[in-house]
Design a protein that fits this description.
single chain, about 190 residues, 1 helix
Length: about 190
């Protein structure tokens, strides 16, 4: 369903209708912070973090916009209790000692059309590394409840071992139980706060 944008809260920029400057919060009811990992070198396991917050500051110059996000490590789920407990354990996320994963943007680059690269710093288990998220701006509108919103998707790939997540088991047939590369997939809506 297409929602007509309110002209007072949108503007045109490089052929896109985007939000006017302001602060947005990630809508908890319309978000997915997911990931994909290789299992036994032959299949993929998908999961997500069910608890995450983010603040998105849309700047006058859209390329000066910024994002900060906090993900609750203990909210990880792959729909398999034993695996989830292992992922929360000291062998992986160590959720008890490192309760959050953090992201702070450091810059935005426009690629083409509605595609951007959001550079930033990701912190997992107290280890911070640079990452680039490929972001697709999905559009801007007003909800039936009068909230000004915009939608986005984002993805990146990280090497989990860069963050100290080195647990693994060698397989008799060669290779390892858990792949090093983790694909991160994010979908969400931002709701205007101010």
């Amino acid at each position: 369903m297409t929602v007509n944008a309110n002209p007072e809260v949108t503007r045109e920029w490089n052929g896109l209708t985007i939000p006017t400057p302001g602060t947005y919060a990630l809508d908890a009811a319309h978000k997915r912070v997911g990931f994909v990992a290789r299992h036994m070198m032959v299949s993929k396991v998908r999961g997500e973090f069910t608890e995450a917050t983010a603040t998105i500051t849309v700047a006058e110059d859209p390329l000066a916009s910024s994002v900060t996000a906090t993900i609750q490590a203990a909210s990880i789920t792959t729909a398999q209790d034993d695996r989830d407990a292992h992922l929360r354990s000291p062998e992986f996320l160590d959720a008890e000692n490192h309760p959050t994963l953090e992201f702070r943007s450091t810059g935005v680059k426009s690629q083409s059309g509605n595609e951007f690269v959001l550079s930033g710093e990701l912190t997992i288990r107290g280890v911070t590394r640079p990452v680039d998220l490929e972001v697709e701006f999905e559009g801007v509108g007003r909800s039936p409840f009068g909230q000004d919103i915009f939608g986005f998707t984002a993805s990146t790939e990280i090497d989990r071992e860069d963050f100290g997540l080195t647990w693994n088991v060698a397989l008799e047939t060669g290779g390892v139980l858990v792949g090093k590369k983790i694909k991160i997939e994010i979908e969400g809506e931002g709701i205007r706060q101010a």
